[in-house]
């Protein structure tokens, strides 16, 4: 019995849709407005001089008791008629108000349906869009300043960004899989070639092992770069006060053994205080300098500077080298994109500048990349200023 009652209650449950709420709102507004108008009209009628009646005067005849009695009866009848007219006015006005409230509710239901029709269209189209057809759009018609069209255009912009993000993610996964598979295939080939020989000597086996270790180290560098890129894009890390000059000094001390002897290194480090994650900022500088070392021709130069430009802490790396087309510069910050110059010192994985872009984005830093004065690239990364407390003392 209880189950039947529960089913019946579920069938007759009111669905408080937006259309129903708008209809009730329209009806309530009309009812309140009509009731207010009715009350004001009734008060004006009651307070009018005609509704208060007139005093009957009979001159000297008013001293006659018979005349006074007739006058009183006339006044009584007039008052009763006036009260009856007021009650009739109030009753009929109330009935008219109730009827018009019902009519306004029906009209409100139709108007709410027409107003919400674009929302229903957007809902139906949005339900058909999934990860497999993100290229579809709502494409809502209407004037440019229409709120519902603006909502549809905003949703279309969101779909466009999601579509681009999905495509970038697919390309990244495909490229990462290819990059990880290549050294594994090479490692397997080296080992199979060594094992295919009937009597390999110790020197040959040693060379194979060294080659396999070198390939394994290359895999480790690739995996470390992928992890750094992922952690930078997540943006979840702790920040601390740091000086870009100190970070660049530590990076150059580490990279000096790999600095080509035929490439001049010019360093000018002025204090540039900012906030950030020291490990990620150090990786950013390492990739910038490493990229410059890789693509600087023999006899070229590299300049590394830190300073405050208009109070903004910046690090700048400029190198000579092959000319980079201006329209190709934005693509360098995409994962697995390489310049492809034959003059490169050694091949990288194409993740260096993409990690730079991810770290800069996580620190709300701005990257400006231009063609170098003698080929190569001129890259400037401007970090946010360090937050300061009272009296200009940096907040720890």
From TrEMBL:
Pfam families: HAMP, HATPase_c, HisKA. It catalyses: ATP + protein L-histidine = ADP + protein N-phospho-L-histidine. Keywords: ATP-binding, Kinase, Membrane, Nucleotide-binding, Phosphoprotein, Transferase, Transmembrane, Transmembrane helix, Two-component regulatory system. Its EC number is 2.7.13.3. The keyword Signal does not apply. Residues 113-167 form the HAMP domain. It comes from the Bacteria. It is an enzyme of class 2 (transferase). Residues 175-387 form the Histidine kinase domain. The chain crosses the membrane at residues 24-45, 89-112. One of its GO terms (molecular function) is ATP binding. The keyword Lyase does not apply. This is histidine kinase. It comes from Streptomyces osmaniensis. The lineage of its organism: Bacteria, Bacillati, Actinomycetota, Actinomycetes, Kitasatosporales.
